[in-house]
Specification:
Blueprint: E1 2-7, H1 21-24, E2 33-37, H2 46-56, E3 63-66, H3 77-86, E4 90-91, E5 95-101, E6 104-111, E7 117-118, E8 121-122, H4 129-151, E9 156-161, H5 184-193, E10 197-200, E11 209-211, E12 217-220, H6 223-226, E13 228-235, E14 241-249
Parallel strand pairs: 1-2, 2-3, 3-4, 6-9, 9-10, 10-12
Antiparallel strand pairs: 1-13, 5-6, 7-8, 11-12, 13-14
Helix pairs in contact: 2-3, 4-5
Bound molecules: fe (ii) ion (2 copies).
């Protein structure tokens, strides 16, 4: 079995020091790795990421993250990525990583993803160049996700995005903004790539549990949704969810 701690949308600002570290003590007894589903900061500034990097340096288990739309706001994502890499965090953007967990191999394919909407209410690769650029970018993200998952030859395969691959986990959000919260193309990639489970954030007003059309469990781990420092997902040898529970209610 493997135990995955996951959270997204922690939205660190300059005053967030300790926001996560106070819950990291002993995390290695509960989880084998920590996944962060993007929106690590408020506006993607060096100051904010510096506070987070200091906190993540304390994490007793490997940390793997993707960036969210907020982390791109200042247009210095490469610099922010380097800051996290320096403290041992793996930052994925269209890339995959494999790690050994108690003799089992775990592969995580991660990227931000993008919007576009869901079947019956989605944008299409047609018309103005701006619209084509939008949907083509989402398609390129989905293609990278699919190919990355297929390339993984690991016991477990995990998809990690910021944007949602399915509508299920958006329940509670305004329907009008669904196209800005995710895309069905990501779910198709997850199904075709053979992921065991998919994590995302971004939908602060959504719900935790969903599923792709192909039956892959999807979990929205945005902190405002899970209301804990982390949720812990235990996968059995077949990659199915054996147990899921919350860890450390966030008190401030
Ligand atoms: Fe967010
Ligand atoms: Fe977001």
């Amino acid at each position: 079995m493997i135990r995955i701690a996951a959270v997204g949308d922690i939205h660190y600002d300059r005053r967030s020091s300790g926001k996560l570290t106070k819950y990291m003590d002993g995390l290695e007894q509960t989880a084998d790795l920590l996944l962060l589903a993007g929106d690590l900061t408020q506006v993607g500034s060096v100051e904010e990421m510096s506070v987070l990097a200091d906190d993540l340096a304390e994490c007793p288990v490997p940390v793997i993250t993707v960036f969210g739309n907020h982390d791109y706001h200042s247009n210095i994502q490469e610099k922010l990525s380097e800051m996290l890499t320096r403290v041992g965090v793996t930052v994925l953007e269209g890339t995959a990583v494999s790690l050994d967990v108690q003799g089992q191999s775990v592969g995580v394919m991660g990227l931000k993803g993008f919007g576009g909407g869901f079947i019956g209410a989605c944008g299409s690769d047609f018309g103005e160049q701006e619209m084509k650029n939008f949907i083509r970018f989402t398609k390129s993200q989905a293609d990278a996700l699919r190919n990355g998952l297929i390339s993984l030859n690991t016991d477990y395969k995990i998809a990690l995005t910021h944007y949602s691959p399915c509508e299920d986990t958006l329940l509670g959000e305004k329907k009008e903004i669904y196209p800005f919260l995710g895309s069905y193309l990501l779910a198709e990639a997850i199904d075709e790539g053979g992921a065991d489970i998919a994590f995302h954030g971004h939908a602060h007003h959504g719900v935790e549990k969903g599923c792709t059309p192909g039956g892959v469990p999807v979990r929205n781990v945005a902190m405002p949704v899970i209301r804990h420092a982390f949720n812990i997902y235990t996968l059995n040898k077949e990659g199915a969810i054996h147990q899921e529970r919350s860890f450390a209610a966030v008190t401030s």
